[in-house]
Amino acid sequence: MSNTRRSLQLQVNGQTHALQVEPRVTLLDALRESLHLTGTKKGCDQGQCGACTVHVDGRRVLSCLMLAAQAEGRAVTTIEGLEGEDGALHAVQAAFLEADAFQCGYCTPGQIMSAVSVIHEGRTGSDAEIREAMAGNLCRCGAYPNIVTAVRRAAEALA
């Protein structure tokens, strides 16, 4: 296996970062290890749990399945990039707090990133639709009812 590093520039949370990474480095590992953005979590590392969900060009992506090189030239948003310019929480983050939509919190960043996309996609017509749209994000603690409540409340607040 080659140990050759590649230069690339990533646009993350509105800032450009120059990196030197091996070609096989995932976006998840680049975010966590090179940029020290540890809000995005490594769960299964196989695209099964959703803990590593980020946005790439406004669409949700499992960052453990995307190579960092594939994100070059694209806008990446992590959980750290959701807050407002004044430091205020995003409406989805606030709704998660208000609805107590987490227990251990490990899955929460991925849940929130997916929820933002689900709301943007207009997939919040019913609790069943929210559950279906959020199905790719697992919560081992079982906070699903409160997560659905948070997504519904955030969708109403953002309407």
- Can you tell me the residue ranges where pLDDT is under 50 for at least 5 consecutive residues? none
Structural class: alpha+beta
Which superfamily, in CATH terms, is the homologous superfamily of the largest domain? Beta-grasp domain
Through-space gap between termini: 50 Å
CATH class label of the largest domain? Alpha Beta
Tell me the CATH architecture of the largest domain: Roll
Q: How many E strands?
A: 5
- How many structurally independent domains? 2
Please state roughly what percent of the residues sit in beta strands, choosing from under 5%, 5-15%, 15-25%, 25-35%, 35-45% or over 45%: 15-25%
Helix content: 25-40%
Report the C-alpha radius of gyration, rounded.
16 Å
Biggest beta-sheet profile? 5 strands, mixed
Whole-number mean pLDDT: 96
Q: So how many helices?
A: 5
Query: Which fold does the CATH topology of the largest domain refer to?
Result: Ubiquitin-like (UB roll)
Q: Assign an overall shape.
A: globular
* Order of secondary-structure elements: EEHEEEHHHH
Strand order of the largest sheet: 2-1-5-3-4
Protein name: Xanthine dehydrogenase YagT iron-sulfur-binding subunit
InterPro entries: 2Fe-2S-bd, 2Fe-2S-bd_dom_sf, 2Fe-2S_ferredoxin-like_sf, 2Fe-2S_ferredoxin-type, 2Fe2S_fd_BS, Aldehyde_Oxdr_Iron-Sulfur, Beta-grasp_dom_sf
Domain 2Fe-2S ferredoxin-type: 6-82
Keywords: 2Fe-2S, Iron, Iron-sulfur, Metal-binding, Oxidoreductase
